[in-house]
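To whoever is on call:

I kicked off a structure prediction for a single chain this morning and the downstream step that reads the tokens threw a length-mismatch warning. I double-checked the sequence; it's 180 residues and nothing unusual in it as far as I can see. Pasting both halves so you can look.
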Amino acid sequence: MNTNENTLNPVFVQDIRDMLQQARQKTYAAVNFIMVETYWRIGRRIVEDEQAGAERAAYGEQLLKELSRALSAEFGRGFSSPNLRNFRQFYLTYPDEAICYTLCNKLTWSHNRLIMRIENTEARTYYLKEALAQSWSVRQLERNIASHYYERLLATQGQLPPAEPERLRPADFVKDPLHT
């Protein structure tokens, strides 16, 4: 077979490119899945084992600084005290392992960091599910959170009472067209 690219069938070359691109996407997804799961497990270890289940150990900041130094020396960047606090907060936000395995690890760590900062549980769940279902980029997710997309969506449906917005969920007003 002639290896001169000028004589290669363009469809053949494109098929090979597509295979490589798909392999890269699958590799990225697998690595992301494992890393998000690992960050959750690190957060759980910090909270449950080192803090006896409390939100913060009395020596929490010193613990995180020492852990950061030890991990950074061996694994490099990415294990600063603020990142370790994020891992801890990630676990505290989603202590149910099922949430981590069914939703969180299908999104990037950047997506999860944004979503876990949302205080309203229903809004947080909405953004988690929508970011996944709609394949929102991190930038798009950030815009939607900053513009209070969830709250505006509820308000446009006339479902947002002024006093208690936390009790409503998108499922309360989004109807399945097949069952109406």
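Update from on-call: the warning came from a stale cache, not from the record. Cleared it. Sanity check on the structure: Confidence is low (pLDDT under 50) at residues 161-168.
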